[in-house]
Amino acid sequence: MAQQTAAVAGTASQRERRRRIVAAAQGLLEEREYDRIQIRDVAEAAGVALGTLYRYFPSKEQLFAHVLMEWSAGFETTLRRRQARTGHDAERLRLALRRAAAAFERHPHFFRLIAVLEVVDDPGVTAPFRTHGERFTRALADTLPDVHPDDVAVIATMAQALLSTLLRSWAQGRRSMADVYEQLDRSVALMFGAPRVSR
Which pTM does this prediction carry? Predict the structure, then answer.
């Protein structure tokens, strides 16, 4: 089945309408899980007709992919603003990973949304989802000004994969958030130093 293409929000009023839809969907996701949100709920919260919403976002997955992208943009800005100006790369990376984990701890429905979207094969979903991932990788890379440029992308990718694995375990109830933080700290220490030797 052919994927539907979203309408372009060309005028100021259209951009505002689209912004309201995304904001309403984000607000609902902060309150309840993705599966418990109906598109009709979003339309009502945004004050638009259901048909209008579907013109901008032809599917629920496309809408929430844009919600995730907008949310991650705000997170990236916060992460950069709070980034330590002093210290060393390991400490900056450790704090960035902890802040990311804390953001998902405060908004667990956003992490569970990632598991839904990462398997959707629709360009209207994969493009904003990729943007979300790239933004976070860049934010982690920016914590590493003293690392050799050839290694920055590798460390940032490893750190992002680690965080994703730990949070998935947490979301499934197999790991506490305290353990997530502890494993993040230990993993960053291993990346930047020698492993502990068993006596």
Answer: 0.84
- Taking a C-beta distance cutoff of 8 angstroms, is the pair 46, 24 a contact? yes
When pLDDT is cut at 50, 70 and 90, the band that residue 77 belongs to is confident
* CA 97 to chain CA mean position, Å: 12
The phi, psi pair for 5, rounded to 5°, reads -100, 135
Token digits for 74?
Answer: 């705000």
Are 49 and 43 in contact by the 8 Å Cβ rule? The answer is: yes
Structure tokens at 130: 């990729």
The one-letter amino acid at 71: W
Question: How would residue 8 be classed by pLDDT, with cut points 50, 70 and 90?
Answer: low
> How far is the C-alpha of 125 from the C-alpha of 65, rounded, in Å?
6
Q: Tell me the residue type at 25.
A: A
Domains of the chain, first to last: 59-192 (1.10.357.10)
* pLDDT at res. 1: 41
Q: C-alpha angle 161/32/64, rounded to 5°?
A: 60
Question: How many Cβ atoms sit within 10 Å of the Cβ of residue 112?
Answer: 18
Query: CA-CA distance, 42 to 22, in Å (whole number)?
Result: 9
The amino acid occupying position 126 is T
